[in-house]
Amino acid sequence: MLGRALLPLTRPRTLTPAIRIALSTAQKRSYARERKPKIKSEQKLTASTPGSQWQTQPSATTSAPAQNIPPSNKYTDSQPEFDTSEKSSEDVTRPAEEPSLENGGQRKDQTSNITPEADAFEEELSNGNRDPQQPLPDLTKGIPSTLDAELKRAHLRGDEPPASLNITEDTAEPIPSSGGGGGARGGDGLPKNAYISSNERKKNALIKYTYLVVAGAFVGWTLYLGRNWESEEEEKKHTDAPSGWGLGLFYNRARARLGATLSYYNEPAFPKLLPDEEADPNLRAPFTLVLSLEDLLVHQEWTRESGWRIAKRPGVDYFIRYLSQYYELVLFTSQPSFIGDSVLRKLDPYHIIRWPLFREATLYKKGEYIKDLSYLNRDLSKVIMIDTVPSHAKHQPENAIILPKWTGNPNDQTLVQLIPFLEYVATMGFDDTRKVLKSFEGTYIPAEFAKREKLLREKFEARLAEERKKKPKRSVGGIASVFGVKGQPAPDGIDASALAEGEMLWDQIRKRGQKQYELIDKQIREEGQKWLDDEAAAEKKLQEESISSMKGSFLGFFGAGGVSGEKK
């Protein structure tokens, strides 16, 4: 026993150790002898590269003769495929000792010979004709691929033509058709629907039923919308779609009802966006100024370094505080309320802007947000709108002043330059602001108004010089005619003596407005912080009351409201 164990150690190592893998069990030798008993005794396994398929070739003359393999027991049904009790005998002959290089000889790769039965078994495995009852291959070296053998067998049987696999699933590459039968999926003659599982059939049927239900519901809803009007009042509102039978009348009624349904989402939230005007005209401003937010009062931009940033336009505080004495200020933006309100709190913390309106107050039409001034509940002849997007003023372009978008330039003075024009419109007693805006159509209003003001001042000074030469009786009405307001009463606070001294009516109005602005600014600086603290306290109190009310409702749901009330 000890000699038999030491015998492999004394033998020289062969240069092709992979030969032993296929010949590890006696069952393989027995199977190979039964399948192909007559094969030349001397064969040689060669391999071009490691891991490649072994091929049988006639062996060259070796220095040592091949050894005979002792016979082994036949494979029987009673014997398991892997019987570890049976020891495999030596089936590979050892090569002769290599010639020494010192004697000038060349080294030759000496390989051992294998039995004919093993060679037949290897050839049968390579041809893909392996019997399902034969022993399994050695899986210690990895799981072999059966794809190549399956393709070869299919090609030999003629089931499908040889073609490369469409591994990339490219639709442009044609997939080889089955040769076993028309419409067969795998050449077995079965139709394609035979390969659909029962779950997939149920899913397809459910989808079909869903489509039918949706189509039926749509038809029923359309029929319901096209019914006759239920009252005479509804029929009077839709004169173009009267009651009656007919495909056209039916379609018009359905369209009218559908439009009324969608108007809930497309029209402003309320038919009157602003409350009714106060009865006393002294308590309200006679004119309304509607201002946009984005790119007019502020500009927001996003950068990778700092994220979202919002810049306030130069002169915004002076603009809104100065004009608040002449106009009812309204902020009308297409931004949602949760965005616009947070920006407005920072822009105008003292609520100089009286009414804020957000996207919910706009009219949505054909993918655009329109600021329809007819919903403001104000006289449009006294309304001026300033915006940067022409489509926002699509319904009332005659009331709008469209300015270029502010892009964040810190030296911009557009708002400050626009104040004289707006002050002029509000103080000179015009009946319709739309006529004034019409005269400035197609021009940049601040520059055009400055040009016209310069001409008026030159005319005023020339006429004043003539009157001083003639020394006529001075009157405010005569001097006011220079401004085109002849026959109208002079505004309150106008000093006739100042006109005689060369101070224009316009200069006096501006001086009075500047004093009023200084009073507003002083009051904000002195009491502004107190206003903010009072507002924060009121909001906190309101929040606490809301939380207390919610707790009471929650406890009352479980019958604990009375106990909570007694404790309070």
From TrEMBL:
Keyword flag rRNA-binding: no
Transport is among the record's keywords: yes
Composition bias type Gly residues, residue spans: 178-188
Main location: mitochondrion
Signal peptide start-end: none
Domain FCP1 homology as annotated: residue spans: 282-425
Gene Ontology cellular component annotations, sorted alphabetically: TIM23 mitochondrial import inner membrane translocase complex
InterPro entries in alphabetical order: FCP1_dom, HAD-like_sf, HAD_sf, TIM50
Polar residues: compositionally biased ranges: 44-82
Superkingdom of this protein's organism: Eukaryota
Assembly and oligomerization: Component of the TIM23 complex, at least composed of TIM23/timX, TIM17/timQ, tim50 and TIM21/timU. Interacts with preproteins in transit.
Record-given protein name: Mitochondrial import inner membrane translocase subunit TIM50
Gene that this polypeptide is encoded by: TIM50
